[in-house]
Write a structure and sequence with these properties.
The complex is a heteropentamer, with 1 copy of chain A, 1 copy of chain B, 2 copies of chain C and 1 copy of chain D.
Chain A lengths: L21 H28 L3 H6 L12 H9 L10 H31 L5 H11 L4 H15 L5 H26 L2 H9 L4 H9 L4 H17 L2 H5 L8 H10 L7 H33 L4
Chain B lengths: L1 E6 L4 H17 L3 E6 L4 H13 L6 E5 L5 H5 L7 H6 L2 H4 L4 H6 E2 L2 E2 L1 E3 L7 E5 H7 L7 H13 L3 E4 L4 H15 L2 H9 L3 H4 L2 H16 L8 H9 L3 E6 L3 H7 L8 E5 L7 E3 L2 E4 L6 H15 L1 H11 L15 H11 L3 E3 L1 H4 L2 H16 L5 H14 L2
Parallel strand pairs in B: 1-2, 1-3, 8-9, 11-13
Antiparallel strand pairs in B: 3-12, 4-5, 6-12, 7-9, 7-10
Chain C lengths: L5 E12 L2 E12 L3 E6 L5 H9 L6 E6 L2 E2 L10 E4 L11 H11 L4 H15 L14 H13 L5 E5 L7 H18 L2 E6 L2 H7 L2 E6 L2 E6 L1 H6 L4 H6 L6 E8 L2 E4 L2 E4 L12 E8 L5 E2 L8 E12 L3 E8 L2 E8 L9 E6 L5 E4 L7
Parallel strand pairs in C: 3-8, 3-9, 6-7, 7-8
Antiparallel strand pairs in C: 1-2, 1-4, 4-5, 9-10, 11-12, 11-14, 12-13, 14-20, 15-19, 16-17, 16-19, 17-18
Helix pairs in contact in C: 2-3, 2-4, 3-4
Classes of the chains: A mainly alpha, B alpha/beta, C alpha+beta, D mainly alpha.
Bound molecules: adenosine-5'-triphosphate (2 copies) and magnesium ion (2 copies).
Chain lengths: ~300, ~400, ~350, ~300, ~350
């Protein structure tokens, strides 16, 4: 046999691949164009926010800034006025933080326990509740505004931070519960059984067995909720009062209250500032997000 | 006490005017103004206010337009009765036109403090634009229409109009009040007389609106102040807008009669609608705050505050007895008309928000779609007015 | 098997999933210290039965007694059982020690007692060096030992195993099989062991319960099941290669079939030879003598070789006798080729006869 | 000694307790709120809900209203475009991503990031980009192509497609990620089998892989569809419903009449119609997905 | 095996996944019509090799020839191969007919030709009644047949099977094994078959390639592999239960170990008896005679029974001879108990000797 191996004619080794094969050109071409379409708005926002007003009026929106100025950012952050308050977005930022953190925690806590109960402790009627919940995902928020005002009023929670937390938990519940339920269903059932034989109860299994195994889906839920709650305008403004108004309200105020000429640069800076938190989260944890989605959303 | 006041006055001139109110409250009483501005139109802000009130977490005072917007809240007993304040400050006597106070009165009790008068039937004209086109600044709507071709030739948009529904609605409103005989107006909007709605006079208005639709076809802006800005910079010939547009001219440093001209009642008739903003005061449990509410209400109608506020806001004061020397040309023109008593009630006072919303939809559609004829639009107008309450 | 000593008793057990009746009127009594294997093809309800015993599934009807107590409604952890799963089901985020002690901590066992029991289990299973590792860092066999250890520390009377070895490769399986056998001898617990591997069943079991469609087809010692299968299903299920079957008719001790008339004199009838009935004759490949040895057998047939499968240790041949195919097990050194003539023969004492209609052993 | 059968209420008691928030949400908020809304749609409620029964008046008026009809039509157009395009684009992008490309992470992040932005922001940016005096159109003209006109937001006929452009920009990323996860879940042997069979990649996707991705498609469908029905912010930020009423949507109609028009009854009637439409879609799906099969 | 007739030839094949060298300098020549089985433990590179042959993986170095043509760079579909996967990889939404014809349609084979080939494959595999069904409505065995059919219709020279039976239960596996064997006899194609089931390998193969760590340890006929394993790995890998091994030292024909001095006179050394070397003696359980038969054997030992595993057809016993454990295969009827004394013996001709250091057969 070794005699054969002495010399080899014809093709051998890996098949040569052209770097610029037709396929690659098509794939990267399309992806490049798509990337352009997705990046263009971001680019325009960033560029505009760094220009002065005269430059904006003169040039086109895609031109890079001739003179970079951070004044619009400063203005958007700390000077822009809404009504009488001229402290820009800064106040709203802390409000948003204050709203987002408890809302995200509570809504995920509730939804994950729901998902776990639905996946592992199926009780009678659970499916019905779940179906209603999924149906709830389709209800336009406007429809629920009024009934919720009444309910919160009756609970005495209207206008408080906790009222808003409850509202966010309610509206986050359908999709999150679906995600968690699917994820927990995909975990080996035998683990759950083993823990029951070991005498662990509902909460012990949840905290000691399930929770440590659920990082990806928690990341997904966290990302979805942070984005959703941070970007929320309607609930933030309806279920709280001015000293708790989230950043988006300030953004709306800045963008919608114009004085003569629209200050596009300030608007863009404000927009970017508002989107910064969710954007950073996406850029940082994109990979985990995809993994979590694969684990939680795909299995039906 | 801290008094939280919600309103939707966030544009430049508006905010400055609110600042006067706040200053007055903070300086002249020991109470503190907590500002709750929500940008956007009343449509954004109103549901928030209503939710707050019905949700049991009311603010101390809130802006509403005059008229029937707060009617049900009053009926539900959620609004503070201001009769004591009104009587103590003789509102009945000082407030002019009296219709404003009537609008605040339900079953003989006063529930709101009128703050200003807005009249929306103004045509604002750019001197620069007309100079460029080489035609004289028009003095009536008819002249304005006649001069439009010259403007177009000079590359100037004859009529600036933002694409938001309420602006188109306002323009239509201005035509109705300025071009329609008062008796027809009253029988249409006050008596909801369907025959009047179907009359030739009304059709005429729709035809005029169709002309305005053509003249504004090239104006690609959204917000009212952007449209005003077109006039200020001479890119457009004119704009139909309320008296608050004056604030924008002022902020831009322009002088009435010199850089711009204003035609109340579109220059056709000396009639203005008397509408405006009023503050309502939700019932509060806290007695301190309740008292403070009274003080704020009294303050709003106070002569000095009225002057300071309305100068900034570009609107008219609600009392005839104040000194308005500082007022500019346009404002004086308006005051004069009001002083002559040539005011009819705003339709916001006459029709419900619901009807108004329907009418807005109609006008918005009409303005956006040149294929809708005046006749077709009138037919739908009649339909809406038949159902109106 | 003294009734007083019964460890697990299952009475009239029914279990339905919706409309699907997975277990039907199942009765089973398992003695103290017995090693019972549940054997059956996939989907026959073995795991379901085990889960019922463990309390992980709510029974539809019937009772379950463990150690003399009715535990039908008791919690899994209160039944005195330990369970070992096919996929090990180790808690991935805990160390081996954590896995072993989790159940004890839940039961609020004192610390030093936990340490003692974990140490003992680790010793018995020889996993002391692994105690600080996480399951991901263990080999398949080690994981399986930890899984057994988890049941072990709980000091329970009854061990339940659900196909504990089927994820392992053949060699390891053989090793662990021996270990489990020794563990049983050491501990003396009752063990219920689910598998569908015959070798496991035959070597481990004191008794085997062969299940089919939610019913127990036969419950007997391995040798009884091998030598006297109660019905056609069990006969075909047990043994590899499968028992050869010939359809025919039985009249007294004469079995007539395509093979010709065969006298089954010497066959131990269950009840007594029936008068006349359609019947099936079965004979295991390893009980067929061939070549010279065939001549010694009471029943002799001529056949031709069709297919030869040399396995090394043995050789399997499929032969054709009067049109009926027979698998025959021959010596590993046998050199046969398709087409060769091969005389075969067997002893009526080694055959099995079944009623064609009821499929029961005659 | 023999434990008696526990009351069924107390079995899984902890699970039931834990599920109380869900049960309350499902029963009180979603069901209760929905029933309340439906009930009050038969009344003449104006600013505040009042029990003045008027039968089907609100519905008659609703279906007589041009704006509502336009809204429904728009929802249909928008929904169809979004469904089809986000499915197609999302899938194509996912398929491209699945070609073992370099910089996969970068591309994926680029496509996904708009999902982090609110519809308000999306609407504002695209309103701006599509503004003929400022945006793309202006730039192209400045490059010398004078007759170029791309101003979807200012043309009533196509304004709704302008909204679709922005909606796709915001939402396709998530769809792509879902599809990508689905593609990665397909048995690699299937790919091998089709290569041995000599089936070109596109055919494998079309005839083999896509039909295998049913569960992903269903999750995706729920996400997209629930987003479509609720579309509101985007419209408000981008067009305000205009020009004219050409981009009005049912959710906006509901909002405008409940609060702007202060006619709760009308708003409730409109929302009831929306809910009805949702029910017609969701119920068969729910029965298919959750009714028959149990966990196993 | 004529060089001109070689069907598949693999020359100096290397395959690396990044830094992991999965296949290393692998050479393999497979004759026309030969049935080659690749056997090896999990992860040894069997599937990888198969995928290289199929063209589903790009090789790192080396060449692959099929039917005399160098196909190293050819597309899978152009190599004249058909492949059957462990998970079947049927197209789930197509009917059986669709599955069979999809590749042909794609290759623009005329309609009637497709119909003919599908009909023939269906006939050969006896799946005619299933043609209109979807894979989900088929049993495991039926699915496997369809998967084979998909390769069959392509009229290829070489069939590649990647553990095609390992998802099936034992009985079905045995049946399909026979079918594949017959299929091979009918078609006469070259077949390359991956498995880690010894029985499959022994019964199906013309030759077996035993792989370990990406290398071929031995390539020989089944009987050669069973009777003369080239090295320790192959010796231990083949045979169940495993070969018994005793460490010791060999000097000429004397093997000294804890068992004592044993003369291996009669053993067929590969090269000739070495002078003196540490060595390992192997003897298969089935080649150990016990009881009376042991007395006839040249080598005899006394032992005590430690463990008995009755399998029905056979009985396995672990005995202890001078401290060395031996597994012995006995008759199924044997009645032994732990503690019994059992004389055992074997023939030097049946033993295997390996160099301790190189692990090569002596
Ligand atoms: N949750 C369930 N819902 C409906 N049917 C089920 C459920 N669990 C199991 N079954 C059905 O019950 C039957 C018995 O299942 P079980 O798991 O007990 O089989 P098994 O004998 O353990 O099989 P295997 O050897 O494959 O593990 C099967 O037909 C299965 O389809
Ligand atoms: N894509 C890959 N990247 C890196 N390593 C791989 C890849 N595929 C396989 N391997 C490694 O190559 C080795 C051989 O894998 P292969 O699948 O060929 O084994 P096998 O012999 O078929 O095993 P099995 O019997 O389990 O199927 C394994 O160690 C595996 O971890
Ligand atoms: Mg099972
Ligand atoms: Mg493999």
């Amino acid at each position: 046999m070794d005699a054969v191996s002495a010399h080899l004619d014809g093709p051998q080794g890996p098949k040569p691949r052209k770097r610029f094969s037709r396929n690659n050109i098509i794939i990267y071409g399309i992806l490049g164009m798509v990337a352009l379409y997705y990046l263009l708005p971001l680019y325009v926002m960033v560029v505009t926010s760094l220009k002065g007003m005269p430059e904006i009026r003169m040039g086109n929106i895609f031109a890079p800034p001739v003179e970079i100025t951070f004044e619009p950012w400063v203005k958007a952050w700390s000077e822009a006025c809404t009504g009488l308050n001229c402290d820009g977005l800064s106040r709203g930022f802390w409000n948003s933080v204050q709203i987002t953190i408890p809302s995200v925690i509570v809504s995920i806590a509730i939804a994950s326990v729901n998902g776990y109960a639905l996946a592992n402790w199926r009780f009678k009627g659970a499916d019905v509740f779940f179906a209603i919940l999924i149906f709830g995902a389709f209800i336009p928020y406007q429809v629920m505004l009024y009934p919720l005002v009444i309910m919160l009023r009756e609970l005495g929670l209207y206008g408080s931070l906790w009222g808003l937390v409850i509202v966010h938990s309610i509206f986050g519940m359908p999709i999150l519960t679906l995600l968690f339920r699917n994820y927990f269903t995909s975990l080996p059932e035998e683990l759950f059984k083993a823990a029951r034989v070991d005498g662990a109860g509902f909460w012990q299994i949840y905290f000691q067995i399930m929770l440590p195994m659920s990082l990806p889906i928690f990341v997904v839920a966290m990302i979805l909720q942070v984005t959703g709650i941070w970007n929320d305008f309607l609930f933030g403004v309806i279920y709280t009062k001015p000293d708790l108004y989230p950043m988006t309200v300030q953004l709306n105020n800045i963008v919608n209250s114009v004085q003569g000429v629209k200050e596009y640069n300030v608007n863009m800076a404000a927009t970017l500032l508002t989107g910064l938190v969710p954007l950073v989260i996406y850029f940082v944890s994109g990979k985990l997000f995809v993994r979590g989605i694969a684990a939680g959303a795909v299995k039906g | 006490a801290d008094l939280e006041v919600t309103h939707w006055w966030t544009s430049g001139g508006e905010a400055a005017a609110v600042g006067e109110l706040a200053k007055a409250l903070n300086e002249r009483t020991e109470h503190k103004w907590v500002d709750g501005a929500i940008a956007g139109s009343g449509n954004t802000a109103r549901p928030i206010m209503i939710s707050r009130i019905t949700g049991g977490d009311p603010m101390a005072a809130t802006q509403f337009n005059h008229g029937r917007q707060a009617e049900e809240l009053v009926e539900a007993g959620m609004m503070r009765d201001l009769t004591d304040i009104a009587e103590a400050n003789k509102w009945r006597e000082v407030i002019n036109p009296p219709a404003l106070l009537d609008a605040c009165t339900v079953d003989g009790k006063v529930y709101c403090a009128p703050l200003n008068i807005h009249s929306s039937q103004w045509l604002w004209l750019s001197d620069a634009a007309y100079k460029k086109a080489g035609v004289p600044v028009p003095t009536t709507w008819t002249e304005f229409v006649a001069s439009a071709p010259a403007l177009k030739e000079a590359g100037i948009t004859p009529l600036a109009m933002g694409k938001q529904g309420w602006q188109q609605n306002l323009a239509f409103n201005a035509m109705v009040i300025s071009l329609m005989p008062t008796d027809v107006y009253l029988s249409v909007f006050q008596d909801k007389d369907a025959d009047a709605a179907a009359s030739a006079e009304v059709l005429e208005i729709f035809k005029t609106a169709a002309i305005a639709r053509d003249l504004s076809a090239d104006s690609n802006v959204q917000d009212w102040n952007q449209a005003t800005n077109l006039v200020i910079t001479g890119q457009a010939g004119g704009q139909i807008m309320g008296d608050w547009a004056q604030g924008e001219f002022a902020v831009a440093g322009q002088v009435a009669g010199q850089d711009y001209h204003c035609l109340p009642g579109l220059g056709e008739r000396d009639v203005l609608l008397a509408g405006g903003d009023a503050f309502y005061f939700p019932v509060l449990d806290d007695a301190d705050k309740s008292a403070a509410q009274g003080e704020l209400a009294a303050l709003l109608v106070d002569p000095d505050v009225q002057v300071a506020f309305n100068l900034k806001k570009g609107s008219l004061p609600v009392r005839g007895d104040v000194n308005l020397d500082a007022a500019n040309d346009c404002m004086k023109k308006g005051l004069e008309i009001l002083g002559r008593g040539n005011a009819v009630p705003d339709w916001n006072i006459l029709i419900t928000s619901d009807t108004r919303a329907q009418l807005e939809d109609l006008f918005v559609e009409f303005f956006a779609d040149s294929s809708i004829t005046a006749e077709a639009a009138q037919e739908r107008f009649v339909g809406i007015m038949e159902d109106a309450e | 098997m003294n009734a007083q000593m019964n460890s697990v008793e299952i009475k009239n057990l029914d279990l339905h999933f919706g409309a699907v009746k997975v277990l039907q009127d199942l009765n089973l009594t398992i003695g103290q210290g017995e090693f019972l294997v549940l054997l059956g093809s996939s989907g026959c309800g073995k795991s379901t039965l085990l889960n019922c015993i463990a309390g992980l599934l709510d029974v539809t009807a019937g009772q379950i007694h463990i150690g003399g107590k009715n535990v039908t409604w008791a919690e899994p952890s209160d039944r005195g059982i330990g369970m070992v799963f096919q996929s090990y089901a180790l808690y991935p985020q805990m160390t081996v020690e954590g896995n072993l002690s989790f159940g004890l901590k839940n039961a609020k066992v004192p610390k030093d007692e936990i340490a003692k029991r974990v140490a003992r289990a680790a010793e018995v299973l020889q996993i002391e060096p692994l105690l600080k590792r996480k399951p991901a860092a263990l080999s398949g066999g080690q994981r399986q030992r930890v899984a057994i250890g988890r049941a072990l520390v709980r000091d329970v009377d009854v061990f339940l195993f659900d196909e504990p070895l089927s994820n392992l490769d053949a060699k390891l399986r053989a090793d662990l099989r021996v270990e489990i056998k020794q563990l049983h001898q050491t501990l003396g617990n009752t063990m219920i062991y689910v598998t569908h591997d015959q070798i496991e069943a035959m070597t481990l079991a004191d008794r085997i319960a062969i299940m089919k469609g939610g019913r127990v087809m036969q419950l007997d010692s391995p040798s009884e099941i091998y030598n006297r299968p109660r019905n056609l299903y069990v006969a075909e299920f047990i043994g590899s290669p499968t028992m050869n079957m010939v359809d025919g008719a039985l009249a007294a001790t004469q079995f007539s079939s395509p093979l010709g008339e065969i006298s089954v004199e010497g066959y131990a009838f269950d009840g007594g030879a029936p008068d006349a009935t359609p019947a099936v004759l079965g004979i295991r490949p390893e009980h067929i003598a061939s070549g010279a040895a065939a001549a010694q057998m009471p029943i002799r047939l001529d056949s031709t070789v069709e297919l030869v499968e040399p396995l090394g240790s043995d050789t399997l041949a499929r032969v054709n006798a009067n049109g009926a195919p027979f698998w025959v097990r021959l010596d590993g050194q046998a050199t046969l080729r398709p087409g060769d003539a091969l005389p075969i023969g067997f002893d009526p004492a080694r055959i099995h006869l079944f009623d064609k209609a009821s499929e029961e052993r005659l | 000694m023999a434990a008696s059968r526990p009351k069924s209420l107390f079995r899984n008691l902890n699970a039931k307790i834990a599920a109380i928030p869900m049960i309350i949400t499902a029963l009180v908020v979603f069901t209760g709120g929905t029933l309340w809304t439906v009930a009050y749609s038969f009344t003449k409620s104006k600013m505040l809900p009042k029990w003045k029964f008027v039968g089907f008046d609100q519905y008659e008026r609703l279906w007589d209203t041009r704006r509502w009809m336009v809204s429904i039509e728009n929802l249909f157009i928008y929904g169809l475009c979004m469904l089809v395009l986000s499915f197609v684009l999302g899938f194509i992008l996912a398929a491209l991503m699945d070609q073992k490309i370099r910089f996969e992470n970068t591309f994926r992040t680029i496509i996904l990031y708009p999902f982090a932005l609110s519809f308000i922001v999306t609407g504002l940016v695209w309103q701006w980009l599509l503004n003929p005096d400022l945006g793309v159109s202006n730039v192209v003209r400045a490059l010398g192509w004078d007759s170029f006109a791309f101003d979807p937001l200012y043309n009533a006929q196509i304004a709704i497609f302008g909204v679709v452009i922005a909606g796709l920009w915001q939402g396709t990323g998530l769809i792509m990620v879902l599809m990508l996860a689905g593609l990665r879940g397909i048995d690699q042997d299937i790919w091998k089998a089709s290569r041995v069979d000599g089936i070109p990649a596109w055919k494998t996707y079309l005839f083999i892989v896509i039909p295998m991705m049913r569960p992903v498609f269903i999750t995706t469908l729920v996400l997209i569809a629930s987003g479509i029905v609720k579309v509101y912010d985007l419209i408000v930020a981008m067009t305000g419903g205009g020009p004219g009423v050409s981009t009005e949507m049912p959710a906006k109609y509901v909002y405008d009449y409940m609060f702007g028009g202060q006619n709760l009854g009308q708003g409730f009637a409109a929302s009831t119609m929306m809910l009805l439409a949702v029910l017609i879609v969701v119920i068969p799906w729910a029965m298919l997905e959750f009714g028959g099969k149990k966990r196993g």
